[in-house]
Amino acid sequence: MNAQQLSERLARVASFVPEGARVADIGSDHAYLPCYLVANGKARAAVAGEVVKGPYESAWHQVREEGLEDRITVRLADGLRAIEPEDQIDTVTIAGMGGSLIRSILENGKEALTGVKTLVLQSNIHARTLREWAEQHNWRIADEAILEENRKIYEVLVLQPSQTPVSFTAEEKLLGPVLMKERSDVFRRKWTGEIMQWRRVLHSMKEAEATPELQARRMQLEENISMAEGVMRGEDTERI
């Protein structure tokens, strides 16, 4: 992978960036994504943000190698603190992290999201927590994608600010409102595997002491299995 040829995962993220965007890529690593977007004319300008010095230096060298210093700014900063008002950022991408870390970045820097019209979030795990954050902060899910690369499954969420209250069902938070309608082969593989894992965990709980915490965990797993199996069968679900 390089700035000219992205991985399938990052290419999917890039596909959701609006034409002519001003992008902040948070946790940019080698800055492949912003370099690709700017070099191919999809983004007018970009900020590559990194909190760790090593990746920050890699990003800076990549931008300089591509000759894009005039349109891509590389900043050493924690999360959304990489964004400054004069950047006029309208699109934020955060890719290659767990959902909980992405949520923490959004929550800790939400003041920087003023004026942002699109969030493209690619989580390695726990996409559910991003949907919960979106509901709490009135961001609607404009699109979603699920893909498999190198035997790992990733989800991509595209969020846009909503002028009206946002609400998702329990099924939509767990499985994704767009993804659960499409029920692609990758989607089915993911949730078949999750159901099998949940059942193994439930089985391992049988001999454990029935504490209130364990009982709550058991009920949550049973609810997850019921929801996932219902969607896999194509059953209509009630709004919760």
Automatic annotation (TrEMBL):
SUPFAM superfamilies, per the entry: S-adenosyl-L-methionine-dependent methyltransferases
A Pfam family hit: TrmK
Gene3D superfamilies xrefs: 1.10.287.1890, Vaccinia Virus protein VP39
Gene Ontology MF terms in the entry: tRNA (adenine(22)-N1)-methyltransferase activity
Cited InterPro entries: SAM-dependent_MTases_sf, TrmK
Keyword tRNA-binding recorded: no
Single GO biological process annotation from the record: methylation
Domain of life, source organism: Bacteria
Keywords: Methyltransferase, Transferase
Keyword Transport appears in the UniProt entry: no
Annotated protein name in UniProt: SAM-dependent methyltransferase
